[in-house]
Amino acid sequence: MAYEGGYTGEKAGYTGPGIPDVTRVSDPRQPDTNNYLSSNYFKLEITRLPLVTYHCQSANLPSLTLTHVEQGNPTGTAVKWVGGRYVWEDFTVSFVVDEDMKNWIEVFEWMEDIAVMTDVRNTMNYNISPGSKKGHNAGQMNDYFSNAQLIITNSSYKPKLTVSITDMFPTALSGIQFNSTNTDNEPVIATATFAYTYYTINRLTNNA
To answer: 110, 4 in Cβ contact below 8 A?
Structure first.
């Protein structure tokens, strides 16, 4: 008697109850590619920060943590269940600061716009009349945030994955240390840190 969903005698291989028939797979352990992922296989796109994007040196794919919920019981060992909250690591971008510091100021002014730094009139949620310092009307909620895409490529630098980061905004901008004793003209590297709501990963199947 054949097990339901198991070996029927039509094809080679034996499958017991709930056991997949691995003999019908050519090689289940053979990966699609033997190439490894290198840390320079990426591109970054941030619409709101074009100069930061152009001078980007590094960016991280943030880690993801799912916390657990503990169920109380009479014993000394708590039962752990799925059902906690997702914790997304901050998104961090390092970039070379250009001579005019325009890309550094891009981030600075974004931070100045979305919160009250020294004067509420400098924020985007303050209705400023034309001809004043900013010259724009009160910002909408969408103006506070920006989306970003971290594009991961293969060894031929063709896009394979896109990481779409939703509702991102800056929370930290590194300072710049000037030093008159330096004899070499070393580029200045700055780092911007962003909070966001979540990210999604899309596999690009059309690229070889």
So the answer is: no
